[in-house]
Amino acid sequence: MQQFEGACQCGQLRYRVRGTVAALFACHCRDCQRQSASAFGMALWLRDAELTLLQGSTACWARHTPGGRVTDCRFCPQCGSRLFHQNRDTPQFLSIKPGSLDDTSWLRPAAHIWTQSAQPWLPLPAEVPGWPGNPDDFAELMAAWQAAPHDCRG
């Protein structure tokens, strides 16, 4: 298990999370582009995560996905920074917005999803697996993480 700490943009909310990294990937879907106000969003999936709020509290918005699932999106009520996602169908995984981590120097996505929506000016690395939408089985995405060289600093 790794341990990570992070905060929202305004610093009113700080957290610590422990868990096993299952995947780190970039998502280029339009929802992630809107949520991040950028070209893509990133997700750090932790299995069996233990989340501790060190300071502040979160607000929650329930997002209905195009596939009919419900994802709880937790964010800082002060600045609105999105920090965590958790799909109600897979509660064993906590998705952290990894840009909120104190140390982001090690972040290198092992895969890209929703590449069909990727910005045309953004070259994606040929050696990194990608899918035009969601992979048929997210185990493929997790296998890409296991196969990729990475250094989880936590």
Question: What keywords describe this structure?
Answer:
single chain; 154 residues; mainly beta; glutathione-dependent formaldehyde- activating enzyme (gfa); 8-stranded mixed beta sheet; 2 helices; 8 strands; 11% helix
TL;DR of this structure?
The chain is mainly beta. 11% of the residues lie in helices and 39% in strands.
End-to-end separation in angstroms reads 9 Å
- Coarse shape: globular
CATH level-3 fold name: glutathione-dependent formaldehyde- activating enzyme (gfa)
Output the radius of gyration: 15 Å
Domain count: 1
Structural class: mainly beta
H-E order = EEHEEEEEEH
Q: Can you tell me the CATH class?
A: Alpha Beta
pLDDT averaged residue by residue = 93
Low-pLDDT residue spans: none
Name the helicity range: 10-25%
Looking at CATH, the homologous superfamily is glutathione-dependent formaldehyde- activating enzyme (gfa)
**Tally of contiguous helical segments:** 2
Strand content is 35-45%
Largest sheet: 8 strands, mixed
CATH architecture grouping: Alpha-Beta Complex
Task: Set out the fold topology.
Elements: E1 2-7, E2 14-27, H1 30-36, E3 41-55, E4 59-64, E5 70-75, E6 82-87, E7 93-96, E8 111-113, H2 138-147
Describe this structure in words.
The chain has 154 residues and is mainly β. Helices cover 11% and strands 39% of the residues. It has helices at residues 30-36, 138-147; strands at 2-7, 14-27, 41-55, 59-64, 70-75, 82-87, 93-96, 111-113. Strands 1, 2, 3, 4, 5, 6, 7 and 8 form an 8-stranded mixed beta sheet that branches. Strand 6 (82-87) and strand 7 form a beta hairpin. The longest helix is centred in the C-terminal third of the chain and has 10 residues, at 138-147. 32% of the residues are buried. The model has no long low-confidence stretch (mean pLDDT 93).
